[in-house]
Structure formats: C-alpha cells, structure tokens
Amino acid sequence: MNPLEIYLTIILNILPILILFVPYFFIRKKFVANLYLRIYLGILVFYILYWVLPAIFQIGITPEELETPTNTQSIGFLAAHFGSLIALFANYPLVTLPFIFFLAPFISIFYVWHHLRKEKGSTQSNLKQLTYHSTESPKERIRSEIIRNDWTREKEILKLLIVLLPISLYLLQVILTVSNLETNPVITGETALGWFLEIFFVYLATFIFSIELLYSSQIALKGKYFGENIRSQTYKSLYTVGAPISILSIILFIAQYFSSILIILYFFAYFLMASVIFILFLKVFEPISILILVKLIAWWKNRKERTKRINTANFYYGIILAFVAVLIFLLLYVVVFQPLYLSIFEDGEYIIDSAQFVPPVNPSLADAISFDLMVIFNFILYMLVPIIIMVGLLAFIMKYFKSTFLGFITYLPVIIILSVLFLILDAPPLINFDPEEYWITGQTSFIMLFNLQFFTLRTAALNATLEGTLGILALPYLYTRYIFNVVIWTLLIYYGRKLFKSKNLPIDDKIVEKIVFSSISDYLNFDEYTQEQTQYLITRKKAVESEEFEHEREEIKNLMTILTEEKLLAELKPDDENERKRFYFTLKYLFYNKLIDIWQPEFKYTFEKVEKQGLYIIYDDGRGVYNYAFQEDSAQDPGLVSGMFSAITSFIKEMTKSAEVLKKIDHGDITILLEYGEHIFGALFIKGTQSAEIRAPLKDFVNWFEEKYKDILKEWTGALQYFKTDENKNKIEEMFK
C-alpha cells in the first residue's frame, strides 16, 4: 500500500462514524443531547468491535478483492455497510436489553421475599411495612437521570462485569467441552461460542441488575433501605472471590487455548462491548424496571383484595387488537415486503452463501452490498415493523383497559398463539420464534476506488446454531426476548405520556397512607366516576390563572377556588344523586377545557408519622456546617451535636473494626437518622419510628447540599457564611414538606 491508499482507507473507514457525531453539536436541549451521546457511544463501541477489531485479528490473512464495476457502487457499499452496522446495533436496545430489564424485577422479588423471611415477625406482617420511595414517573426519572449525567453507578457495574468476564468465558468454554463442541482455531465463529457469549452476558447482566434494582428502587422495611446492604455485600463478595478466580481463569485459558489467543481476545472485547452498551442504556430502561418491581410488590400486598375486585371490563379489546396487529403485518408482508424482497434479492440463498466467512466463490462488491441490504431489510421486516405494530397498537389502546396487566394477558397470548400457528403453516409470523441465527463479523477485503486500493471489511456471516447443552441453556432467552421487548417498550410509551403525583392521607393519629397517582389523558366514564373503591385526585392546572374562568358561572368559579389545593374526587362529589350527575359533566367541561387534571392511583403504602425536630449537616471531620430547626423548642446546640457525632462514630469504628457507617441512633423516644455524602453527612432528629418517607428526603438533601457546595466543601476552611442562605431553608421545607 502506498501512503495515499493508507490515508484513503483510514478516512473512508472512519468517515461514517464521524458524520454520525455531527448532529450532537446542533442539539440544544440538554436531555436530547445527553441521550443522543449515549446512543452514539453505544454505536461507537459496536463500530470498534464490528468494523475495527476483525481487521486487526486478520492481519495474517490475505484480503479478498471485491470486484468493483464503478466508483459510485464503492461509495454505495460504504453506506450499505454502515447501515447494516446500525441495524445490528439496534438489536441491543430493541430486543436484548428489554429481556434484562423485564426479568430483573422478578428476580428482585425473590430477594425481597428472602429478606422478609429473615426479619423478625411473619412474612405477611413485614410485607405490609414495606415502602418504596418512587414518586417520579418513569418519564420524569429518565429525564432527570439523563440530564444529571452521573456515571458513578454505571462505573461500578462495569467494573464488576469486567471482574467476572474471565470466569464467564472460561465457564463457557467448559460448557462447550461438555457439549462436545470443539473450537476451530481459525474460524471460531462457526461454533456457538460467540453467539452463546451474548446470551450468557444477558443472564449475568440480569442477575447483577436485579441486585442493583433493590438499591435504586429504595425499597425499605421499617425505614431501612435493605437493598443497599444486599448490593454492597454481593458486590464485595463477587470482588473478593471473583478477582483471584478471574486471574486464575485467564492463566488457565491462555495455557489451554494459546493457539486461539486472538479469537479469545476478540470474545473478551465482545463481552466488554455488550457491558458498555448495557450501562449506556441503564438510565433509560431502569425507571420502567423500578415501576414493574413496585407494582409487583403492590400486587403481592393486596393480592387477595385485588382478586375480588379486579375489573375485566373491555377485556375483549386486547383480543380484537391482537388479531388486528397480525392482520396488519400480514397485509404489509404480502403487499409490500415480499414483492420488495423478490425485486431486490433475486437469489437470496446465493447472497447468504456468498457472505460466509469462507465462501465457495469469491463474492463481488454487488454481493457484499446485497448482503448488507439484506441485513437491513431483515431488521426492518422481522424486528422494527413487528415492534412498531405490536407496541404501537397496545400502547394506544392501553388507556381503555382497567389495568395494564389485563391488557397484556389478553393481547400477548393471542399474538403468541397466532405466531406459532403461522410458523407451522410456513406463513410470516408477527413474532419470529425460529429465526436463522448467524454470528455476524467482518472479513478483510479491498476494492478499487479512483484507481486506488481501498481496504475495508465486508459483512460476513457464520452459522451459530446452538445445540445440546448450549441449546437448552439458551431457550429462556431465545423464546421470550421478542415477548419481553413488547412489554418493556409498551410500558415506556404508555408511561412516557404520564406524570406522577403523590398525596398523604391520614388513617389515624399515627398512620399515614401514601398514594402515588398518575395522570390520565381521557376523561372518566360514568361508572368510574361513581365507584367508591378507586380514589381519583383532582387538581387545578398550574398554568391556569383566575382570569381564565372569570366569565364562567359561579359554581365553576367556586370549584376552581377550592382546587387551589388538590382534592380527592370523593371530597368534591355532592351528596345528592342528581347533583352528582350534574357535577360529572361540570368536571368533564373543565377537563376538556384544560383547566383541571385528573389522576388515577398507581400504588400505595402506609407509614408511621414522625415529628421532625432538627437537621444538622456535619463535615466528615466533625465540624458543624449547617443546621435547621423544625421546632424552635427542640433545637440543639450545633457545636455539641457535631462533637457528639465525631466522638460516637470514632468510638464505633474503633470498637467494631467495621467498614460500615452508622445509619441510626435510638435514644428513648428520640431517633437520629444519618445519611452520608462524600465530604459531609446529615443527622436528622425525629420523634417516632423511622420510615423511608423521612429518610429519603434526608438523603436527597445531603446529595443536593453536597452538589451545590462541592467546590467549597472540597477544601473547606470552616467558614459558615457560604451556607446561611434562604435557598437552603426553602429547599429543606420543600423536601421535608
């Protein structure tokens, strides 16, 4: 290669990924920009594995020449090749990751059940005391997390996955040996190792995320976030045991498979790539997983009550909609996709054969382009279009179901049965349970472009059929992934339109019930309005000014004045039956004129009231930073409080030799709750039993305070004037309201 050919090869190979980064500079909204950056980084690491690494590992192999009729066709090849890369990458967020984020909450439930059994008291009584600080809608949580752009947790998860990587790969090789599947030292992809490595990663990531979910969902028993301890203990155990075993696994692996060392490194890189993509999309999918977990616990708490009063109205909508979805896909296939396929790919079998890593004949550039187009076409036909049809229809009609659960159990079974039936009849199924699996990689090739040799990778495919033990282990993933992605994406779209609001209702002098409501987009029907079991919340829209309803009748003016504070529907409904009917239409008028919002309950729990006394922010060396008294008569001397904590924490660390931090101090009827930041910790004095309702705002305030004053706190000199602001006082009153 002459220098010009080297420059041409480098520029044209990196050009597509550079062009893809350009839109980032023109995105003004921070949320969209951060989300786009995550997607771009995912594509970038996939590009490195798909487009760069195979070329490095094929240095000793002579590149194939792809017959090049025209320069235009060469440019077209680059576009088709990059398009196939995007299509292959899209498998992760559309199919692979939804499996992880749907299954993990069900595994987390097992941990919750196990923890409840270990605690004092019966499982049922402990279950009633579970709380979950989840008052943000998935839409709001995704937005806030993406904007905040904090990668702390992602780094910890990635570090753990890297520690477990060598063990995972060695275990896979043992499974291959047991299954009598030998690894070809030259073309390892023809075995099932590469394909099953992805499936094994999915199982491992599901397990790790189920632990992480206990922490991020802030599930608490008697005010204690037990997910924190489970997470820290599990991670510590995996690090302690995993690190030395990983080192040993690497040594044994190299000793046993030294001749295939480049291929093994490629699989290491593949596992790392999957891990990076997983953590890049963590903040996008995690809020839905949290919601699934909370809804599962809420169902578990109230399962007997719910069984009696489950409303099956409109259940047939799901069945009808499933038939409509299958019919739409069938019509699209017959009218659009099948004729298009036959016109573009006259000999599909030959194109697939030409894409084999060691084909029977050397493929032409036209063959390489055709296979890339086939990858894109199959992605659109068997993945993108089915997801759009199934998810779009179900998310659209979900608002007419009385429960999301009812929607799924009437819709999905029909889709599954019809898809299996279509497979048997050799017709195109909406869910393809039996796709042909290939290990997609790249083979070094070159084409002539402007009379210069341009070296690149053509897309190459290798059979990746799973047999024996691998086939059995892969079954849970292979036959549920297309179902789970429908559930996750439907929930993302359905809850993407919703906002959440919480309200505390006193049960008696000591117990409070917290109800988390979600916004509704369509007005209640009369049956929903009249029923007493469901508690709907009515609020006045924030943007509505008094002038907007000045011309209305007196009844509406009075009602809008009352709604300056949120009210339950039961509190507003008149006692007289005729007046109730009239009030129904009054609310309807206000709702459709965008003057009020109506909220339906999503989940609820009870907790015990506490009396807040004082909040103290203390530097990690014991110096007082800031204090706030909720009640003047219960205020303590900040200097004495900070000195006390400095002495207590030092004494406990010295006596117990424990790395764990002190979280609570009980003294008679006074409880002191502690939450820690990087440089400070917060101490909240309360009367009563701790609950997540009081600990959560303490933790939130400590995090907010440290973030706000991070530059000052890094090297704090002891000056207090920075913190004596009304903003701190207002933030406390807002968080602890």
Q: How would you briefly describe this protein structure?
A:
By secondary structure, the protein is α+β, with helices and mostly antiparallel strands.
How far apart the termini lie comes to 71 Å
Compute the CA-based radius of gyration.
30 Å
Q: What is the residue-mean pLDDT, rounded to a whole number?
A: 83
User: Looking across the biggest beta sheet, what order are the strands in?
Assistant: 6-7-10-8-9
| CATH arch. level architecture of the domain at 611-735 | 2-Layer Sandwich
Q: How many distinct helices?
A: 25
Helix/strand class: alpha+beta
Level-1 CATH class name of the domain at 611-735 = Alpha Beta
So what's the overall shape?
globular
Work out the number of β strands.
15
Beta-strand content bin: 5-15%
Low-confidence stretches: 182-190
Q: Using the coordinates shown, work out and report the CATH topology of the domain at 611-735.
A: Beta-Lactamase
Largest sheet: 5 strands, antiparallel
Percent helix, as a range, is 55-70%
